[in-house]
Structures are given as structure tokens and as C-alpha cells.
Design a protein that fits this description.
Largest sheet: 3 strands, antiparallel
Number of helices: 4
Strand content: 15-25%
Radius of gyration: 29 Å
Distance between the termini: 67 Å
Structural class: alpha+beta
Amino acid sequence: MEKLGVARVRALLPAKRARASTLLIARDKALERKRANWANVENSCAASRDLPASCHNFVNFSDLYLAGGPGHLPMRRALLDQRACFLCLTVEDAGRHAAMAGLSGAYLAYCDCTRKGTAEKLGIVAVVSQGTMKT
């Protein structure tokens, strides 16, 4: 409507419709504050619902790499020297990955996995932590 200009819009609209449109716009503006308040309530409810899980996962990432967690990784466990590593990721180039991996502050084990009878190879990195010995 801005492109048409005020004079052209007034010429196109009968007086009754113009008043009705003005009233509808005023009613919408009056509801803006309520809409914003509802958005705040919705955000607060979501935060209180998700805060415990978020804090728990911020510390130990259990939803990410423990079996049955909502976001668990498909390749979730590697057994290295009788120790279970529950956070394993595929790596295409271990050399490139290792250049940045030092920033993680974690002990990482790079492995090339092969299936018996095939030449197919899969590279993984496993995070070695002080976790429990459950398998």
C-alpha cells in the first residue's frame, strides 16, 4: 500500500472499508503485546522443560553417545585393549583431523577398521576417557 500512496488508497477504498481497516489494524497492534508475552511464556516453559537435560548433557554428553540416548551415534562403541570407548566418529583423513584434535584436550585413538574378507577400510577416532568399565 505504501507504493500506491495515501491519496490513491483513499480513492480506491470506500469510507466504510477504510474505517474498518483502520480498526482492524488498531486491534492487531493492541494484541502485539499479548503475543509477545505468550512467546515469552512459551520460551520459559521450553527452557524449564529442557534445562535439566541440557545441563546433564553439557557435562557428560550421555544423550549423544550412550546407547538408547535420543541422539546416539550409529557407531557408538569401540573396544580397545579391554576398554570400551563410547564416543567414536568416522574420520576420512586422520592426518588432517589430528592437526586440530589437539585442541580438544582429550585422548584420541585413531583406528583403521577392516571387515574380514574385504579390502574396504573405515577410519574412526575414539575418545578414551576415564568413564566406567560397563560394556
